[in-house]
Amino acid sequence: MAFARIDLSGTLGAIAFLTLLASFAAADEPTLESRLKPLIQAHKGKVSVAIKNLETGESFLYHEDDPMPTASLIKLPIMIESYRQAEEKKIDLGEMLTLKQSDKVPGSGILTDHFSAGAKFPLVDAIHLMIVYSDNTATNLVLDKIGIGSTAAFMEKLGYPNTKAHSKVFRRDTSVFPERSKKFGLGSTTAAEMIRLCESLQKGELVSKEASEAMLKHLRACDDKDKFPRFLPPDTKIAFKTGSVDSSKTAAGIIECGQGPVAVCVMTDENEDKRWVADNAGNRLCAEVARVVFEHFKKDKEDAPASK
Questions:
Q1: What is the strand order of the sheet 59-62 is part of?
Q2: pTM across the whole model
Q3: What is the tens place of the pLDDT at every residue in 65-80?
């Protein structure tokens, strides 16, 4: 077998040699798919993943169009519908709400255990609690103002027919989609629809630029440390929302990487590991996917490979 002989003398020879080495290194560099597929295939449960670099367009999709249970991830679309109604003057984000004992429901959040009946706060604070602490009582207060079916109606108008809030939290009797509630619980969506929503939010296209930025501010304060942020540097900027029930763990949002913002959605269901601990398999998959995404897109924009 004959090999091409490269003249290494002079500047041009050195450049040719370095170019050759770079091509070999690029060929050996693992792809996003080769990094993610083993993690997904090792998970004992159903998985749906969608990832898109919003700068280069490079993406990874896995069962991205399968409708999945959202758990509390549906609170992100509920927030979007709330800001739409506020923009159209149907609701007032400054309206003062009064917490009643009958409003309190169990699960995540702080209102039920730490606020007394009769406490007053503006609607925008209920939205903030809904996103940051995934507060279930706050979510129901928001739904009382915007209407349970309104989120699904607006999502369908935007082109997201699978994204639906079904009922109030821990109030299955309020479901406006009874059959979907039986199958998916609180809400449903697809990974593909979630990253499209995240992309529109990042671009300032949801409701208005001002509303989009306000919503991103809520999402940047999300306090779930067990999913996307777990293996990332502490100063990583992430705007995201998560969800957890016994058999489903979900997360979606925008991770700021070296190449720019990347929209990521990880959804799991029928998980064998149903433990309520930080290291359960669903949480860990969300965290591992976020780490792979951050490392894969860590290069500066000028050094990034061309989009595939």
A1: 59-62, 46-53, 260-269, 248-257, 238-245
A2: 0.89
A3: 999 999 999 999 999 9
Q: Please list, in sequence order, all residues whose beta carbon lies within 8 angstroms of the beta carbon of residue 239, skipping any fewer than 6 positions away.
A: 201, 202, 216, 219, 220, 222, 253, 254
Instruction: Please check whether residue 126 is in contact with residue 98, taking contact to mean a CB–CB distance below 8 angstroms.
Output: no
CA distance 286 to 304: 24
Q: Cα–Cα distance between 129 and 109 in angstroms, integer?
A: 7
User: What domains can be seen in the chain, in order of their start residue?
Assistant: 35-66+190-298 (3.40.710.10), 71-188 (3.40.710.10)
Pair 264, 305: CB distance under 8 Å: no
The secondary structure element, H or E, covering residue 280 is: none
The Cα 189–Cα 150 span in angstroms is 15
SS3 13: helix
